[in-house]
C-alpha cells in the first residue's frame, strides 16, 4: 500500500544553482546552433589566423614568425567576437522579441539570467581558445609565459567586453545594435593591435588606441605569450577599468523591454 503523500505535488522553483546551470546550457546550445554566431565567433578568427600566418599580406612589424605575433591577437579577437559582438546582437534581439521580459518574470532572477549568459560566453570562449591554440600550434606557434596570467587577461577582457555588449543591447534598438556591434568589431579588428601592430599608427593616434580594451588584451597577451613577460599590470589595469565602467553602466541603463 502506497504511503500517504507519496505522490503529493511539491510546486516551487528549482534550486538557484540548477536554474543558472540549465539556462547557461541552453544559451550555449543556442549559440552553437546559430550559423551566423559560429561564423563570427569561430570561423572568422580561425580563417584570419590561417590566412595572415601563411600569406604575407599584412606587415605585423614583428620579428620572427608571423603566427607568434598573430595568435595572441586572434585570441583577443575571439573574446571580442563572443563577449561583445555576439552577445550584444543576441541579447538585443531577445529584448526586441520579448524573450528577456518573459524570462525576467520567471523564477530565475534577472541577475542570475545575466550570470547564465556570462557562463555561456565563458564556455564558448574555452572552446574557441582550444581550437585556435590547436590551429596556431599546427602553424608553428611557440607560446611562452604563465598560463595563469593568460587566463586572468582573458577573464578581465571577457568582463570588459560583456559589460559593453550588454550596455549596447540594453540601450539601443536591436537593428541599431546589430549595425553598431558589427561596425565596432571591424574597427577594433583594424585598430586594436589584432592584425596590425600599433607601432604602425602615428604617436598621437597610438596613445589613444592603447587605452582601448582590445588593445590592452591583445597587447597583454602578446607580451606574455610571445615575449614571455611577467604580469602586464598596465594592460590588466586598463581592462579592469573598462570592466567596472561597462558592467556598472549596463546594470544602470539596461532596459529589459
Describe how the helices and strands are arranged:
Elements: H1 16-33, H2 35-54, H3 66-96, H4 99-104, H5 110-138, H6 147-171, H7 174-191, H8 203-209, H9 213-225, H10 233-253
Helix pairs in contact: 1-5, 2-3, 2-5, 3-5, 3-6, 3-7, 3-9, 6-9, 6-10, 9-10
Provide a descriptive summary of the structure in words.
It is a multi-pass membrane protein. This is Transport permease protein. Keywords: Antibiotic resistance, Cell membrane, Membrane, Transmembrane, Transmembrane helix, Transport. Residues 36-257 form the ABC transmembrane type-2 domain. Its main location: membrane. The chain is mainly α and 257 residues long. Helices cover 73% and strands 0% of the residues. The protein has helices at residues 16-33, 35-54, 66-96, 99-104, 110-138, 147-171, 174-191, 203-209, 213-225, 233-253. Helix 2 (35-54) runs parallel beside helix 5 (110-138).
Number of DSSP E strands: 0
Global mean pLDDT: 87
How much of the polypeptide forms β-strand, as a percent range? Answer: under 5%
What structural category characterises the helix and strand content? mainly alpha
Question: C-alpha Rg, in Å?
Answer: 20 Å
- Spatial separation of the terminal alpha carbons: 52 Å
What form results from the Cα inertia axes?
A: globular
Helical run tally: 10
Percent helix range: over 70%
Run of helices and strands: HHHHHHHHHH
Instruction: List the uncertain runs.
Output: none
Largest sheet, strands/sense/barrel: none
Amino acid at each position: 500500500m502506497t504511503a500517504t503523500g507519496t505522490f503529493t505535488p511539491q510546486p516551487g522553483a528549482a534550486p538557484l544553482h540548477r536554474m543558472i546551470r540549465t539556462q547557461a546550457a541552453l544559451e550555449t546550445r543556442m549559440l552553437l546552433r546559430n550559423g551566423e554566431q559560429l561564423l563570427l565567433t569561430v570561423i572568422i578568427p580561425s580563417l584570419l589566423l590561417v590566412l595572415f600566418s601563411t600569406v604575407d599580406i599584412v606587415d605585423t612589424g614583428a620579428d620572427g614568425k608571423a603566427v607568434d605575433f598573430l595568435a595572441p591577437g586572434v585570441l583577443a579577437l575571439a573574446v571580442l567576437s563572443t563577449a561583445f559582438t555576439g552577445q550584444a546582437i543576441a541579447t538585443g534581439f531577445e529584448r526586441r522579441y520579448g524573450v528577456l521580459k518573459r524570462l525576467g518574470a520567471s523564477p530565475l532572477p534577472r541577475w542570475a539570467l545575466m550570470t547564465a549568459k556570462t557562463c555561456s560566453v565563458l564556455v564558448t570562449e574555452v572552446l574557441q581558445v582550444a581550437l585556435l591554440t590547436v590551429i596556431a600550434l599546427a602553424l608553428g606557434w611557440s607560446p611562452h609565459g604563465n598560463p595563469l596570467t593568460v587566463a586572468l587577461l582573458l577573464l578581465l577582457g571577457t568582463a570588459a567586453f560583456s559589460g559593453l555588449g550588454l550596455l549596447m543591447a540594453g540601450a539601443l534598438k536591436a537593428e541599431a545594435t546589430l549595425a553598431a556591434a558589427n561596425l565596432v568589431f571591424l574597427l577594433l579588428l583594424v585598430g586594436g593591435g589584432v592584425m596590425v601592430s600599433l607601432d604602425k599608427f602615428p604617436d598621437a593616434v597610438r596613445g589613444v588606441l592603447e587605452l582601448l580594451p582590445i588593445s590592452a588584451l591583445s597587447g597583454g597577451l602578446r607580451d606574455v605569450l610571445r615575449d614571455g613577460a611577467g604580469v602586464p599590470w598596465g594592460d590588466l589595469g586598463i581592462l579592469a577599468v573598462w570592466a567596472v565602467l561597462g558592467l556598472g553602466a549596463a546594470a544602470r541603463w539596461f532596459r529589459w523591454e
